[in-house]
Design brief:
It contains 21 helices and 27 strands. The chain is of the alpha/beta class. The strands form 5 sheets. Strands 3-2-4-1-10-9-11-15 form an 8-stranded antiparallel sheet, with helices on one face. Strands 5-6-7-8-12-13-14 form a 7-stranded antiparallel sheet. A 5-stranded parallel sheet has the order 19-18-20-21-22, sandwiched between helices. The chain is globular and about 80 Å long. The structure holds 5-amino-5-deoxy-1-O-phosphono-D-mannitol (M6R). 5-amino-5-deoxy-1-O-phosphono-D-mannitol binds next to helix 12. GO terms for molecular function: carbohydrate derivative binding; glutamine-fructose-6-phosphate transaminase (isomerizing) activity. Catalyzes the first step in hexosamine metabolism, converting fructose-6P into glucosamine-6P using glutamine as a nitrogen source.
Length: 638
Amino acid sequence: MCGIVGYVGNKNATPVLIKALKKLEYRGYDSAGVAIYTGEEILVQKAKGKLLNLAEKITGEIIPDQVKKQDFSDTEMALYDKTGDFIKGCMGIGHTRWATHGEPSDLNSHPHTNMDGSISIVHNGIIENYADLKAKLQAQGIVFKSQTDTEVVVHLLDQKYKASGDIFKAVIETLHVLEGSYAIGVICKDYPDRIIAARKESPLVVGIGKGENFIASDVPALLEHTRDVYYLGERELAVLYTDHVDLFNFDGEKIIKQPSHVEWDMDAATKGGYEHFMIKEIHEQPKGLTDTMRPRIVKDASGKPVDVYFEENKMDEAWKKASRVVITACGTAYHAGVVAKYAFEKIARMKVDVDVASEFRYRDPILDPSDIFMVISQSGETADTLSALRLAKEQGLKVVAITNCVGSTVSREADDVIYTLAGPEIAVASTKAYTTQLLCLFLLAVKAGKLRGTLSDEEATKLLCELESIPSKIQEILDGKDVIQKFASQQFNKDKIFYIGRQFDSATSLESALKLKEVSYMHSEAFAAGELKHGPIALIDPATLVVAIASEPKLYDKIGSNMVEVKSRGATVMVITQDSGDAFEGKADLVCKIPECSSTLASLLTVIPAQLFAYYCAIMRGYNPDKPRNLAKSVTVE
Ligand code: M6R
């Protein structure tokens, strides 16, 4: 997720900004930049890669690789201080970028400037209508330097400023044209005494100092300077001067707000007040899903969702003609592929084969040029997945990739890329990447169904409307997490945990069991519920917890019978279901109810209690879920 900082005061802004960005490194980034008002002009410096690269570029000094590997070393800090000798100025903005539109590069890094360099902005979020706005601006002769969605904002602002001669008015007018989510920081050469900042659906904090004021995406960037902050609310603006801050709504009316005093220490602050990244990322799922979905759903004039559009998608013809989809991935991403098999069959009536990449690459797979080959990878760097991708390309197949990392190897080598816009995932155990992968797969299935004429317009609209309701339903589950926490406190010492389910729910069982074993080290397995009596039932005893996932009302009787079978052999049973309890009366020790949802899309919901259960079991067993033993976030070796 991008990080924004801004400073207006009496100190040299460049080192202040770079050090503040350093405190936002935990958010993940691929490039960085600053724009400083020097007294005469706005000077911009940006660099792909680490903040150290930016500091090297500014100072011309090269830091040895050994030092680069150390975090917060004295050499690094000294170099940041030195940047102030090269760019002098007491006001500026800075940014760390996590690429969403356009690869990581110097040009795509923020800040972005208007054509004459007199206005500069930093942005975190996604401008959903940027393609339309860009086309209009280009038609008027505006030359774009980057591939970003952000650049439209600064050119629009420039136009509006030229029309009114009032930068504040121009910012407000620009905000009214933008669709999507954003936190922005703006500086203008003609207003050397102020920073203008605004937010809608992306976080922004104003730090209140003495003779200096700040903006930042998150509190850790500010803690060295102040603990007094304004948390900007939805559709609020701040104008920061050296000695005071004015707050406004998007109509330009002044508002009064009480500052908050931050009590968190740095560690808690980087996790947004959560104890671990894993639980933070579990809670980020409603936002990650909204960000991933909103730009992709096409609506008609009345606002009714009618179709799906992936701007990166160049394979419509291939989707129309494909005889099969072949999916390969590893771990959690593979489980998303298993859900996709059910989804594509049901929604688009397409044949799907799913394989773990490490198996696929050593088989002699039978592939046909009319197959669509799909890889799914959060990191885009998993060695086995990459090899599978290359094998498919060698055989002449077109490859579509679903990944969370712009510029990753997978994204570069695939013919077509669909990005999950989950933001960086820091915890080793994948949570928000998984649900955003599922979402992209459901959207793709709808698109494929429409292209192939196997899904009616009415059915497509119904599914898309329901997808739009998923983030708030996940929020509902998160709000009721205490039930799961309590259940985990009773079960965390169990010897064996089995997840069972049918259809989509058997796929969710795989992911649920993986999550639990990864972070809590409890022995957990997943079985298709119908397979129980073909062997695994021999393992059931009173030390077993069975979690049944039951999202399909037509199969309640069947899974209910499986629950009775294991309960009568002494197992404790929890069921995750949308039924309010009647269907499983007397068959479960805990009914974990999820909001109502069609069984087609319910895997986006049923996995949430399982993620929470895994997290709480890990905590209760005394483990750090963010860094499970023996595991790496990205497996770049075989
Ligand atoms: O980056 P990728 O999605 O390609 O990674 C694949 C797996 O290594 C990954 O999903 C792994 O299973 C996670 N630790 C799951 O939580």
